[in-house]
Amino acid sequence: MKLLFLGTGTSIGVPVIGCNCATCTSTDPCDTRLRTSALLMFDDGINVLIDCGPDFRQQILAAGSPELEALVLTHSHYDHTGGIDDLRPYCKGNRHFPTYCTADVDADLRVRNPWSFAEKLYPGVPTFDIRDIRPMESFDIAGHTFLPLPVMHAALPIVGYMTGGLAYITDCKAMPDETLRAITGVDTLVINALRHKEHQSHICLAQALDIIRRAHPRIAYLIHMSHDIGPEASVTLPPGVHFAHDGLLIEINQQS
């Protein structure tokens, strides 16, 4: 299976509006980062979207507007859910778009997007078949098993996902032992690394590298980065660890 990084930036993206730092003025396209999201593409043609932020329309057009089977959400913050209204082309023919999330995210979506859940729907609004999930309880999407991985985003419990040989974790500040055990030895680990200095709700680069060291995946990619990380080529990473960038397509070795 493959993973396409649709966006690899933090909540305000890179470049930051009004900023003239080295990252925000970089001419390296890898330093331009939309809000974090990814497209998981299984070998049987099933495509699953991971998060749907406010840049979704731009991201999915750049990806060629592929068919989507479902959406899995990590949490309800705007930079991860702000684009769900743009899923309306995937709701044609009265399709209720399958969306997997925890109960708190389900509740937030209904408040923030009431037009999609109204008793009398306005013609053309996107509609969703929300399927509540729980941490560490596996679920199935079109024959593919997903395991929600609990992590803490400051005081907010959120989830990452593990499927096949991939563990995808974003917005982590603290990782429970059960999640570390689950991802240990995984083929491909994707994890957030906001900046160099510590942050109140995200792990920093050094903390991300420590998790990678303890989990020892075959390969790891860093996401959800701010402009404080610096221009792409300015940081030396350990072998087998890479900065992801928007549009990067990677191959994941399947694991049973």
CATH topology: Metallo-beta-lactamase, Chain A
Number of alpha- plus pi-helical segments:
5
CATH homologous superfamily label: Ribonuclease Z/Hydroxyacylglutathione hydrolase-like
Termini separation (Å)? 13 Å
- CATH architecture verdict: 4-Layer Sandwich
Structural class: alpha/beta
Global outline: globular
Strand order of the largest sheet: 6-5-4-3-2-1-14
Low-confidence stretches: none
Number of domains: 1
List the secondary-structure elements in sequence, H or E: EEEHEHEHEEEEEHEHEEE
CATH class: Alpha Beta
Number-wise, the strands total 14
Write the layout of secondary structure elements.
Blueprint: E1 2-7, E2 37-41, E3 47-50, H1 56-62, E4 70-72, H2 78-81, E5 97-101, H3 103-112, E6 128-132, E7 139-141, E8 144-153, E9 156-163, E10 166-169, H4 177-183, E11 188-192, H5 205-215, E12 219-223, E13 241-243, E14 249-251
Parallel strand pairs: 3-4, 4-5, 5-6, 10-11, 11-12, 12-13
Antiparallel strand pairs: 1-2, 1-14, 2-3, 7-8, 8-9, 9-10
